[in-house]
Each structure stands twice: as structure tokens, then as C-alpha cells.
Write a structure and sequence with these properties.
Length: about 475
């Protein structure tokens, strides 16, 4: 989302505009506020870390290499916004962004993913990001080439001019071609069957080796011997609009220099990459000589070189992780951050604690965000021409029930609102297509009627809400 800088921000106009100049820390927080309620400390820490990426790129190169990213560890119960902050952050920034669960990884020698796959996945996302940007740059040129190729299919070019070809034939050919061009642009030929040459697509059968860090073996073999793993060209008869898609992909591939894309992607990952490591508490634990703790500490040891800076070999080349920003998150209900090995603790110098949500927070979550739950339900039922309105006392009652259930049972934060609202809206959603009254007002009494049996029965509430 492009947000112009305030005029008060001083910038050297002689330097090229950077990718992150649109976002100041205050503006990042303002954007996050549209979707996430509270958690000011976490938003501020993330916003500063993002802006520091931009600042570092403007520092003289010899000093910039010495400036390491200040990794962040977000600590808080489930459902308070840790993952949502990461999701919204990915949409705000133009940097390669990867969200991954730390619990997916295991110590080398155990069944599980290799931690270096984090970097490989991040590079792959960076390549996709740069490639999309390049596609936008060549979009018009590719469309022009596709149009010419479609015209060649509809009206094959005249053979080499010889004595039998007259000027009248050439003129008639050009007139026919221009007539077809107009029809093509007006969409009159979209369903006409044409014959095009397309490449077969087949998945590489060697993906089985991905856990050992060899997920690219199938792709590499396919590049060496295209016939082995598919990729053979064959002629197919398709409708013109389908042929346009095939030809467009082919033309874009021709116009884009993938070597240049890979170089830019690696540079962007090395200087702007962000990795969100969720469920860090699941790998917290010290070695006891037996049980899962052995693997947990092994994962920490394997993560350590990636976080502190190392070089990883990927399909697109060597990638340094010295300046990749890592944001860790976890509930830490059982384990504590101090249960992480000291070396890994030191690599997450910024600790941010996210607070549990209360009734007032729930009220705001239901109404304020641009994607508020009540707006979602109203939009869904509007497709059935049913207008749903929530009174203030109904919202207050839903928030109160959510707070009470979180306190008495397990605290799952804002996710409790999903289960409660689904129960409240169950009857309306079921009858909406056939209901005669197209305007439904939900008040406190209606909410209480829908939830009364569950609220009274403690055991039932534990399972349903």
C-alpha cells in the first residue's frame, strides 16, 4: 500500500527513491491499527525495525555492513494479534516476507524440515516478487507480441514474395489482417478454435528429497533433460481466449531475463528479507538426554547460524542471512524465553509482550477494524438480500461472554469471538435464503437466547464455546 512521506521528512533528492520510502513508523502503525486492536508496543517495535531497513540502505556501505538487524521476540497468549501483525506486515512491505512455524523443523538426523529451507523459501518468494514486477514492466510489449502471433495463427503470413505475388495480393492481405485485428480487439473472436503449440507441464518426481535440502533436484534435471520430466511441446486445439493465455505466458518468459531476476531477488532478500518465526515456544527446552527436548535444542542450534548470519546455497545462488530480519513469536505458556539456549536468546534483543484481550478490546475488534467480524457477517448475509444490524447492547453482550469464557476456560483471545458469533448467527444463516423478513436486528436478548443453554452448562460451554 503506497503511502507518501510527510513533507517534513528530509531526503536527498539526488538519490533514487527507495522501496520503503512510502512508510514511516507512524504510518506503519496507523495501517496496522486498521486491522489490529491494541498491542501498541508490538506495532511500534515492528515499525521501527522496518524503517531501520530503509535507514541502513542510506548509510555509507562500509558502516552499513556493520549494522545488524535488531531481531524481535513477541511474547503473548494465542489470539492477541501476533500472527495478524505478521500477515498485515507482509502486505505493507515490498520486502520478501516469509511466515513459518518453528515447530516444522527438527534437528538434523530426525524426520522434519531442514532449517536452511527457510532461506530457500524466502529466496523463492523474492524471485516471485521480482518476477511479478518485471511482468508488469513488459506487460504491454508482451500483449503486442501475443496479438501479432494470434493474427499469424488466424491468417498465416504470405510466403516469400515471388513473381506470382502481386501488390494487390499484399494489399488485400494487409486489409484482411487489420480487419481481424479490429475483431480481435473487440472480443468477437474469443470462442474461435485455434491450434497452438504448448508445453506439457508435469511435476518433478524427485520432490521426495525436499526434507534433505534437495527440493530443487527435479527442477535441475528438468533443465538438463527437458524430455525426461515433461516439457515437450505439443499442438493443441483450444479456444482463442485460452490460446492467448498460453502465448502470453510464453512471451513474458521470453522478455524477462531470469538471471537478472534471480540477482535482484537475492539482493533484496539479503538486504530487506523478513522471516516471521511463529511458535518459538514449541522449540524452547534444554537438553535432558532423552525425549523431545533433544530435538528441540537441536533445532535451536540449527537455527542459530541462520539467525546470526550465514551463507546458504540455493538454486538461484549463494545467499547471506547477515541482514535478514527475524521476528519470533510464541505464547510461552509452559516454556519461557529463558528456556531458549543463551546464544539464540541473544539474537532476539528486542522483547515485546502482548497483553491479553479484555471486554473493551473485544468490542473494538467487533466494530472498528476494516475487516471487523460483524461487517463480515453482514456482507455474507447481504448476498441473500438479508440486512443484519447489531445493536450496541448485543455487541456488549457478545464481548462480555467472550471475556467470561476466556477467563473460565482456556484463553484463546479474539478467536473466541469466532465461535460465539458462529453460534449466535447459526439460525439466521441457516434460514436466510427462505426468510421473509429481510431486515434482522440482533439485540442483547437475542444473543442471550441463542447462548443461554450453553452458558448455563459449564461442561457444554467448555466444548462448544
Amino acid at each position: 500500500m503506497a503511502i507518501p512521506l510527510p513533507r517534513s521528512f528530509e531526503r536527498n533528492d539526488d538519490k533514487p527513491k527507495d522501496r520503503d520510502t512510502e512508510l514511516t513508523p507512524q504510518e506503519i502503525v496507523a495501517e496496522l491499527d486498521k486491522y489490529i486492536i491494541g498491542q501498541k508496543a508490538a506495532k511500534k517495535a515492528v515499525a521501527i525495525a522496518l524503517r531501520n531497513r530503509y535507514r541502513r540502505r542510506r548509510v555509507p556501505p562500509d558502516l552499513a555492513d556493520e549494522i545488524a538487524p535488531k531481531n524481535i521476540l513477541m511474547i503473548g497468549p494465542t489470539g492477541v494479534g501476533k500472527t495478524e501483525i505478521s500477515r498485515r506486515l507482509a502486505k505493507l512491505t515490498s520486502s520478501p516476507f516469509l511466515k513459518i512455524e518453528a515447530s516444522k523443523f527438527t534437528e538434523v538426523g530426525y524426520v522434519g524440515r531442514d532449517v536452511e529451507s527457510i532461506v530457500r523459501d524466502l529466496v523463492r518468494m523474492g524471485v516471485d516478487m521480482v518476477r511479478k514486477e518485471k511482468i508488469e514492466e513488459v506487460k504491454e510489449k508482451a500483449a503486442t507480441n501475443v496479438e501479432e502471433r494470434l493474427l499469424d495463427i488466424l491468417l498465416p503470413p504470405l510466403k516469400r514474395r515471388d513473381e506470382s505475388t502481386t501488390e494487390e495480393d499484399l494489399q488485400r492481405f494487409q486489409e484482411t489482417r487489420e480487419k481481424l485485428r479490429r475483431q480481435l480487439r473487440d472480443g468477437l473472436l474469443e470462442d474461435r478454435p485455434v491450434e497452438v503449440e504448448v508445453k506439457e507441464r508435469s511435476s518433478a518426481p524427485f520432490e521426495i528429497f525436499s526434507n534433505a535440502g534437495m527440493e530443487d533436484i527435479g527442477i535441475q534435471i528438468q533443465e538438463i533433460m527437458p524430455g525426461l520430466l515433461g516439457g515437450k511441446a505439443k499442438r493443441r486445439k483450444v479456444k482463442l481466449h485460452e490460446a492467448r493465455e498460453y502465448l502470453r505466458d510464453e512471451e513474458q518468459g521470453r522478455l524477462i531475463d531470469m538471471d537478472q531476476v534471480a540477482r535482484q531477488a537475492i539482493e533484496r532478500v539479503e538486504h530487506s528479507g523478513i522471516v516471521f518465526l511463529d511458535e518459538m515456544d514449541k522449540i524452547a527446552g534444554r537438553e535432558t538426554g532423552h525425549g523431545p527436548e533433544v530435538s528441540r535444542e537441536g533445532v535451536q542450534r540449527d537455527l542459530l547460524p541462520i539467525v546470526e548470519g550465514t551463507t546458504v546455497n540455493t538454486r538461484y545462488g549463494l545467499v547471506k542471512t547477515d541482514h535478514v530480519l527475524f521476528i519470533g513469536a510464541g505464547a510461552f505458556n509452559v516454556a519461557k524465553p529463558s528456556d531458549l539456549i543463551p546464544e539464540l536468546q541473544g539474537r532476539f534483543p528486542i522483547r515485546v509482550e502482548l497483553a491479553s484481550l479484555n471486554k473493551d478490546d473485544f468490542v473494538r475488534i467487533l466494530t472498528e477494524p476494516e475487516n471487523a467480524l460483524l461487517k463480515q457477517y453482514a456482507a455474507l448475509l447481504a448476498t441473500e438480500e438479508v440486512k443484519v444490524e447489531f445493536t450496541a447492547d448485543a455487541i456488549d453482550e457478545i464481548a462480555q461472554v467472550a471475556e467470561d469464557v476466556n477467563r473460565d476456560a482456556e484463553d484463546i483471545g479474539a478467536r473466541r469471538l469466532y465461535t460465539i458469533l458462529e453460534k449466535v448467527m447459526e439460525e439466521i444463516s441457516f434460514k436466510a435464503p427462505n426468510v421473509k423478513t429481510k431486515r434482522v436486528v440482533i439485540d442483547r436478548q437475542y444473543v442471550q437466547d441463542q447462548l443461554k443453554d450453553i452458558i448455563k452448562d459449564q461442561d457444554l460451554r467448555r466444548f462448544i464455546l
